[in-house]
TrEMBL record:
It comes from the Bacteria. Keywords: Signal. This is Secreted protein. Residues 1-25 form the signal peptide. The keyword Methyltransferase does not apply. Pfam families: DUF8199. InterPro entries: DUF8199 (IPR058512), HYC_CC_PP (IPR058060).
Amino acid sequence: MKKVFHKIFSSTLALLVLFSTVSFTVEKHYCGDVLVDVSMFTSVEKCAMENMEVLLKMNCCKDEVNVVKGQDELKLSSIEDVKLAPLQFATLYVYTYLNLFKEVEKQPIPFNNYSPPNLVANIQALHQVFII
C-alpha cells in the first residue's frame, strides 16, 4: 500500500513539473467583429477579406496572439545547498534551551490510598526461606 501511494505521489509531482513548464500560443483571427478561426498548434486560416484588404487598403481583419508562458527556470538544489540563517539558528537554540528546563506536570498516583492486606502468618519464617 505504501509503494502504491509513493508511485501515485511521485507521478503527480512529475506531471505538475511538466505542466508548469509547458508554454503554448493561442492565435485568433477576426474579420471585423466576427471570430473566424482559433488555433493552438498551427497558424490560423485567413478569411477571404484578407486578400481584398491588400487591394482596397482597408484594415477590417486583425490577428490576436495570446502567449501562455510556462516557467523557464527550475531550481535544482541539493542537501549541501541548504543552510540555516544565523537568526533562525539562534531562535531554535533559545527555544530548545527554554523548553529544556520546563517543569513536568505532577502525575497523579493511582494507588496512593491503597493499604496492603493484613498478614495472617509470616510465610518466610514459616517456610524457613530467608534473603541473604
